[in-house]
Amino acid sequence: MSKRLSSAFVLHLALLTLAVTLSVLMGAVPIPLRDVLRVALARLQGAPPPADIPSYTATILFQLRLPHTALMLLTGSALGVSGAAYQGIFRNPLADPYLLGVASGAGLGAVAVLAWNPSPALGGMFLLPAAAFGGGVLTVLVVYLLARVNGHVPTTALILAGVAIGSLTAALTSFLMLRSEDTLHRALVYLFGGAPLSGWKPVLAVLPYWLAGTAVLLLSGHALNVLQFGEEQAQQLGLAVGRAKVVILAAASLTAAAAVAFAGIIGFVGLVAPHIARLLWGEDYRRLVALSLLGGAIMLLLADLLARILLAPQSLPVGIVTALFGAPFFLWVLQRTKRHGGMR
Amino acid sequence: MFRNKFLVVLLVALAALALTACGSSATPTPAPTALPPTATPLPPTPTAVPSPTPITLTDGLGHTITLAKPAQRIVSLAPSITESLFAIGAGKQVVARDDNSKYPPEAAKLPSIGTLWNGLPLEAILAQKPDLVIAAEIISPDQVKQMQDAGLTVFWQANPKDFDGLYKNLQDLAVLTGHEKEASVLITDLKQRVNTIEDILGEAKDEPLVFYELDASTDPSNPWTSGPNTFISYTIKMAKGRNAGDVLDKPWAQISVEKLVELNPDIILLADAPYGVTPEKVAQRAGWDAIKAVKDGKVYPFDPNLLSVPGPRLVDGLETLAVILHPDIFCAAKFTQRLEQNLVAPVCQP
User: Partner of B277 for a Cys bridge, out of A14, A293, B272, B317, CB 3.0 to 4.6 A?
Assistant: First the structure.
């Protein structure tokens, strides 16, 4: 059992390394591997890049591709780990990080900023991600407060409130988009996902939330396992159910909000990464959360790579690619598991 | 504290209303409060000067850029800029364009760095090794900053609000590329054509109401049109007409066909003609046959590039409008011969 588990982790880490490498090496502009190695070597030695290599190579590698890869890694892992937590809390295979309205709230925040269109001096390029983050977090908070009954939060109430508030925010978002037609296309770019901001600043902005959220969630594996027995049972088994739910959902929502703030709304990863991990390696949340973290990162990095090279120099919105390629892959995993008698 | 759920819902609804009110009363993308760009005028480079003087120019966002010499590797990020560069003779200095820049035909042959609809294709732009990137209003200040952070020199131009704005943009491009003489000739010619039209328009007796249809594909009973404070509205007024869309409160908005029937425009211009909309199809739309323009058969196809691309062809746009709005004056050959014949023929030889 543990041999199978450690091989699972090794496989994931290997795939992740491969995905990261490919993501840095490939992109809209073809760069020979030799040039990449020479520029990287020069950078490590603190020397200027070799003169016979085009000047844009270093810029593309260090200012565009490397930070973008880092951001996609953080985003994908955040979505994966958040999805695993949501599926664990709600005990529902259709749960994903956006169930309580993080995505629709973030979308509303982003579109509101675009429609308001303040002068660039006000927060500059970080205003939109900040508003998206705030919108996402606020929406989940409202859903939580609406679902609270006498101090505890029934999961059914959460789902219903989440659906209702999600619909409300989505309607408001559509309304704002139609009213401000000149920002319509920028709004759509955000809503389809894709991280238009380049550089290291977005990575540094997301990192603290990512660290805090994933730390909490990685440590919540045991609590999530106990919750699978049902809330009453879990309470009798000694778990402080109410508090566990709040803490886990808060961490998951915060992580998801940070993920979508800069990368836009990317669907499917949060839903499917935990499922793939579950189908292949079982239901134990202590490892499911970690495997979803790695799996989500791999999925998004590969989808992002495809999005950047399929129609180069044009890049597709990542949210479309994740669904387009993720769905068949997921169905393949499903088929394989069914054939091997893995499904009950 | 949150015992009363209804209070929470009320607060949420109020917050939502406030948010939408805030969003919908927003003014559309404001034109940057431009300090008029100050150009240090260059003497036209005579053939025997050894070292050129540096060019310093402030763009529409207030950024001052400096070039050691006229730009030789330009990446153009808008069709209007590409057109203008070729019009002033700087075509050979353009190395790449955005996907939408297809005019003139020589420009279409240049490599494309992709479309801008899914964000800036920074890698592709960098790979062209430009010494100058010229952007139009479609590029946001954030995106300009992104390009600057990647080490690029960027010159941003606002879309002109009137013909003087067009001449100034052409002038700035001329300074950046070292083609002041050609630009000066072009601008003089453009001004003369505009003045000629304006003078003759003095004879026009009427001011027809014009409906300029941008897009009715999504909802034929709520077509998109140009509202007030657009270049289209301004040019229609210059051509001694009235823009039906001026009753709206946004520059680009939908108008209901009921309102259109009430306004009863004299002429309908189909700027969506390149997408297959014909006068016959318009006549078949429910309720449209009550409109005067449809009854009189004054529904004409139009080339949107003449009024939507803020380049030298705007003057062609003005001249074409003059013909369509006042055929009794402008249908003579000397006015129509340089215009697109498929636009003026339905008007002058119905």
Answer: B272
Task: Give the residue from B265, B258, B267, B247 showing the smallest Cα distance to B287.
Answer: B258
Question: Residue B150 is nearest to which of A54, A63, A142, comparing CB atoms?
Answer: A63
> Closest Cα to residue A244, out of A222, A214, A215?
A222
Distance from CA of A257 to the nearest CA of B (A): 20
Give the Å distances, CA to CA, from A265 to A75, B23, B40, B176: 10, 21, 47, 40
Instruction: Residue B140: list chain A partners with CB under 8 A.
Output: 186
Q: How many CB atoms lie within 10 A of CB B134?
A: 28
Domain assignment of residue B30, yes or no: no
A89 Cα to chain B: minimum distance (Å)? 24
**Listed residue (B253, B249, B95, B70) closest to B177, CA to CA:** B70
Quick one: A2-339 is in which CATH superfamily?
ABC transporter involved in vitamin B12 uptake, BtuC (1.10.3470.10)
Q: What is the pTM of this model?
A: 0.78
Structure tokens at A318: 């990542």
Touching check for A185 and chain B: CB below 8 Å?
yes
What would the pLDDT profile of A63-90 be if each residue is shown by its tens digit?
Answer: 888 999 999 999 999 999 999 999 999 9
CATH number of the domain residue B98 falls in:
3.40.50.1980
Q: Pick from A117, A96, A105: which is nearest to A261 by CA?
A: A105
* ipTM of this complex: 0.74
